[in-house]
Design goal:
Blueprint: E1 17-23, H1 42-57, H2 59-66, E2 68-69, E3 73-81, H3 89-102, E4 104-115, H4 122-130, E5 135-141, H5 145-150, H6 157-169, E6 175-181, H7 188-201, E7 205-210, H8 218-225, H9 238-254, E8 258-261, E9 264-266, H10 273-279, E10 284-287, E11 292-301, E12 304-311, H11 316-320, E13 326-330, H12 332-343, E14 350-351, H13 352-359, H14 361-365, H15 368-376, E15 380-383, E16 386-389, H16 391-395, H17 397-403
Parallel strand pairs: 1-3, 1-10, 3-4, 4-5, 5-6, 6-7
Antiparallel strand pairs: 2-11, 7-9, 8-9, 11-12, 12-13, 14-16, 15-16
The structure holds iron/sulfur cluster.
Iron/sulfur cluster is lined by residues 26, 29-30, 33, 35, 37, 81-83, 116, 139.
């Protein structure tokens, strides 16, 4: 333990929180990126880090103002963004000091930092170890240089392999590799090759995302307009992308890296503790731009504690000028909907008995027609009391989730390789 620990004041029924820190800076902007991140000069980093630290230090006060009940015991920390590895050693260390001053971080906490390949130096590795980091998530996206470069990634395959070797040598063996199915120039052959390269590295965790096409990214807008910029005309069609995803599921599973969530695969015991909090509705607190939190209020609702979600602004300017977070009270109905569409992301599915116990059998019966409809269409299956997506349901998951929404609840996901729901 590199920092003085802090005694835990247990106020949340023993549920430790996950802590998320958003770092919205990148060396270049990837063409497919739809995150609140961009390229800024170094002076902006310092102002931002100070603002982050102020927020972390003020978290207890914010909790009081919101009437929230969260344990200051934390058992996961995740630095995502953006590219947290772009910060200098002092900045990273100060963030961790601030977190450990406010939260009692468990000795065995999972502490992840997202790193862009090409930014990992011996000095960075030393800093990560000093901060207590024990998991690194690498935004590789592709081991085929042409594919990675076509979307603005700066690394080459050789760089990634060398950096994984260095991380391992330093004892950082818990490594995740992010991959994106659907990059320009991708073919079945190149996809099979990059999945096999991922397996060959021996990493215990991989995330596979399908390219998101929306108006929030340059590539997405170009694809929607039918243009050719950003290599858009070399993007495989939807059916092929779905085939790539299926192939990855099969190859990773055969290699002992089993799927446990729609986009996530791990060797036994290497599932991401932090991300599991999002899908199982455990409390988490996010700091920084576009950071989302879910905590429980002190108020007791009819079905247990009232959950609150709050989100910071998604623009750096708004965040820096201290525009307050938006706060949403989660009604019992919305909580059930969340339990379905978040829990169904997991391969183990949703425990219906537990849901009945929490919210009452009568309430849960309201979702029986949607469940039956999905079962009839072989999108969902009941197994041992759990409701799970079928293989077909996984490919059509957003369509399945939409059937569980009976009011204006937003579908919360964990975005492309960045560890906070959006
Ligand atoms: S995809 Fe990740 S690394 Fe690329 S610009 Fe977006 S946040 Fe930065």
């Amino acid at each position: 333990m590199m920092f003085p620990g802090k005694a835990s004041h247990k106020i949340n029924n023993g549920m430790p929180v996950g802590l998320y820190i958003s770092v919205p800076f990148c060396r270049t902007k990837c063409s497919y990126c739809n995150f609140a991140s961009d390229v800024f000069t170094k002076p902006a980093y310092e102002k931002y880090v100070q603002r982050l630290i102020d927020d972390v230090s003020g978290s207890r006060q914010l909790a009081l103002e919101l009437g929230c009940e969260f344990d200051d015991a934390a058992d996961s920390i995740y630095l995502g963004g953006g590219t947290p590895s772009i910060l200098d050693s002092t900045q990273l260390l100060r963030i961790f000091v601030a977190l450990r001053q406010q939260f009692a971080v468990a000795r065995d906490a999972e502490i992840t930092v997202e790193c862009a390949p090409g930014t990992i130096t011996p000095a960075l590795i030393a800093t990560l170890l000093q901060c207590g980091v024990n998991r690194v998530s690498l935004g590789v996206q592709s081991f085929v240089d042409r594919e990675a470069q076509s979307v603005g990634r700066l690394h080459k395959r050789e760089t990634v392999l060398e950096e994984i070797r260095q991380l391992r040598e330093a004892g950082l063996v818990n490594i995740n590799i992010d991959l994106i199915a659907g990059l320009p120039h991708q073919t079945t052959g190149s996809w099979a090759y990059l999945v096999s390269e991922t397996i060959a590295t021996g990493v215990p965790h991989a995330s596979v995302y399908m390219l998101e096409v929306d108006e929030d990214s340059r590539l997405g807008r170009e694809l929607m307009a039918g243009g050719a910029r950003y290599h858009a005309h070399f993007v495989p069609d939807e059916d092929r992308i779905a085939d790539f995803y299926q192939l990855a599921c099969e190859m990773l599973d055969a290699a002992g890296i089993g799927q446990y969530e729609i986009s996530n695969f791990a060797r036994s015991g290497a599932q991401s503790r932090h991300n599991l909090k999002y899908w199982t509705r455990q409390p988490y607190i996010g700091f920084g731009v576009d950071a989302h939190s879910m905590v429980f209020s002190e108020r007791q609702g009819k079905h247990g504690r009232q959950a609150l979600r709050f989100a910071t602004p998604d623009s750096l300017d708004a965040y820096m000028t201290r525009v307050p977070p938006t706060v949403t009270e989660v009604s019992a109905r919305a909580a059930i909907e969340e339990s379905f569409f978040l829990g169904l992301r997991l391969n183990r599915g949703v425990d219906l008995e537990r849901l009945r116990g929490e919210f009452g059998a009568e309430m849960i019966a309201n979702w029986e027609p949607a469940i039956r409809e999905c079962e009839d269409e072989q999108l969902l299956v009941r197994q041992g009391g759990n409701l799970r997506l079928t293989g077909r349901g996984r490919l059509l998951s957003n369509e399945v989730f939409a059937r569980f929404l009976t009011e204006a609840t937003e579908i919360t996901t964990v975005g492309t390789g960045h560890g906070n729901p959006r």
